[in-house]
Amino acid sequence: MQSQKILNMMLMIIAVLLAIPAMTFAEGTAQQHTPVTDGYVNASIPVYITIKNADDWEPPVMPEIEGLEINRNQGTQTSSSMHIVNGAITENKEVTYTFSITAREPGNYEIPAYPITVDGRVLMTFPVELTFKKAENKGLLSVEISGNPEKIYQGEATRLTMRILIKQFTDPRYNVSPDSREMWQLIDPESDWGPFTETMQELYSSRRALRGRPQTLGGEDDERDDYYLYVVQADTRPMSTGPLDISDIKIRMSYPISLRRDRGFFSSGLQVDQVRPVVASATGREILVEPLPDVGRPAEFNGAVGQFSIETTASPTTVSVGDPVTLTIKLTDIGTTPVDMDVVPAPELHEAKALDTDFRVPREALPGVVSGRSKTFTQTIRARDDSITSIPPVPYAYFDPESERYEVTYSRPILLEVNPADTITSSDISGVVNTSQGPTSDSLHNVAGGLLANYTGPDRLLADQGPPAIIWLLLLLLAPPLLALGITATRQGLRGHTANPDRIRSRRACRNAISRLDAANAASDAHQGALVAEAICTYVADRTGQPPAGFMRGDAVSTLQSCGVDETLTTQTEKLIATCEHLQYAGGGGSEISSVIESAKSLISKLDSLSSLKTNNQGAES
Q1: Cα separation of 116 and 54, whole Å?
Q2: Annotated domain spans of the chain
Q3: For the chain, how long is the longest CA-to-CA vector?
Q4: Structural fold of domain 2-133
């Protein structure tokens, strides 16, 4: 009896001890976790605050610390799990907040203890020491700029080449190195690209990653280091003289420090874990931009740099004084190095003295249309008098960087026939005709008959047409009711079509069957036979108004027989469906299934031409 009491007491003590963990789980707690305490300036260190098994809590708020930028990330990470111990079910819930800590200056910083309210209790975190170091490149990233040519004139284009070298990284724990595409994706797209900005925006907008070429370069102490080399080119046309400024090119990247294995459901590969910021400024050989010389600059020059030819055409070539003539000017780049024709200016026609003397020429700048290495301008000019016999040559001045001097090219003259302008006198306006007897005039007086009586000459400009013919009057009266009848008949016909869906199915049966056969031709081998058989059976069901679901070979054959289809065509249908069913299970080559599909199309074409293949309802409606 005594031993039984002792046993019962021990069981009660065990039950109480087992209940203690469950009571602990049921009480909310908070935990602060900092995976790393050493970082780099302008690179954030994460701090995680996890609330466990709480029913009510306030989102944590870190205190402000001088020199640190503290931001809480949007959203939270939640997880839950269940444990069963001796039949007791315990649920664990976790909510994690993530803070990003960033320092703008190197140094040691302390996050002091701060309160977190969980289930009505105030919990205190532990102080955390963080160290931020200045980010140093140390040969991890370099940028070099070169130009071709290295000496250009103001307004001349040069092709810049940017060579980016990124040192390959190898994780010592996994002995794995990210490839060139993965390393390129660590470069900040918002870096300062300078003259390469437009090129890089196009690259990133198309979501293309550059592929780097492996390079091995000598380092300090005769060590050899492996790099990825990325090459980007861009054309630039500097408008300021002196050395080309490339100091505004700064490339930033997050260089990897370690990798981690992603054990997610969809991937289990290695991912970049921790990074350090790296910044590289561009270096390179000096590219000199020379000013255009003043010596020998012609009056017609307006900024064109390169080598050009000019052609002109005119329309019409027979005009009267003051009539508009459309002058078309075509400039063509004939240099060895292509020129950006978008920036090539039009010739200033009013500066061409011969042209401006003989013609009225507008002063406004001309827009042009670029096509390849040519640019076309149009302008309207007007001859000043009838003594002009041609449009004079149009000059175009440019600076040739190869010969380093100004050149002027001319178009060919265009023959032009200019007639005197017609002169209108007051007698032409009043209608008086001069005769040998001297000038005469008609006095103006009021006459009856309205407008038709105002003209008294032999030919009347306005004639009395009389009343409209009776047939046009009848058509005008009958048109509205006829139009209303037509609209009503059309609506009735459309309503009749929609009222009989079987008729619509029958009319579309052939087209739908051909579409199914085309889809079967593009399907995998394992399904082609079944799809062809389905297309044939569905066609018969649609033509005859039968439910397509479960409509098999036997149904198709019996339906064709009941509709009086020729026995030969019915047998052909049955054999073709049987062949499809055989291919469905036995498989067949591409040429065999193609032959079956063509046979099916031919069969459906034959069946579609039969008027007997329809239901009684369709026949009655027809």
Answers
A1: 12
A2: 2-133, 141-289, 297-419, 501-621
A3: 166
A4: Immunoglobulin-like (2.60.40)
